[in-house]
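Handoff note, outgoing to incoming analyst
You'll be picking up this chain. Sequence as last confirmed:
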Amino acid sequence: MARRPIVSTVSRRIDVSVDYSSFGLTDKIAIVSGASQGIGRAIAVGLAQAGAHLVLAKHPAGRHDEIAEVKAEIERLGRRVLIVPTDVSEVDQVRAMIEETRKTMGRVDILVNNAGWTGTTPALDVTEDEYDRTMASSMKSVFFACQAAARVMIPQGGGKIINIGSNFGVVAFQGRSVYAAAKAGVHHLSRALSLEWARQGVIVNVVAPCITETDSRKPILDRPGYKEWATSQMLPAGRWNQPSDLVGSRTWWWAMS
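Most recent structure output, in case you need it:
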């Protein structure tokens, strides 16, 4: 007899309006990379709802309308917003973005390293260019953004960094060998940096989402049979993440740690 799935195979979009104003981030300065859509957008708006002013770092190419919408949404909450075009795979641009934040906003209280890139090529076919692009955007960028932010945070008395990792950094997943290695590196890098900087007031943590429904992932999630396979075999909750699922716990962490 075939074993029946113990979870639903229905993926549901969660749309929950939450008041984060009690989390006490009034007038904090927060940077979120990759903020034009998905997880980055949800976190940026959540931080604004909690009282923070935002610096939105986005790739110079594309999604200009989307980032303008995020900016307008945050401004409607009465927060200041600065958009800084940044290719996170370029260290000079990452450093310039942190410095522009310091000069324009006066300090850096929170950094969210969310931006990244991944291919879906089988390991036997991964090219050196794809490997380098994945590592540069998903691992190298995280280290140098953390370094640049910490150089501001330590003299000002502290700050909080959260790096977006992935379940793929913990469990194996077909077609994501390089991305999985990069995210595993982000996880351990976060431990190492927190150990190194905690006594100086800079706390580094990592969040490892599972499959999350974002615009960039939709072509994968919409493949025939993918939803049924993922929600019955890989995801005990019977659905994948929505970006909003990640906001509340992250905001609590910034407020309490």
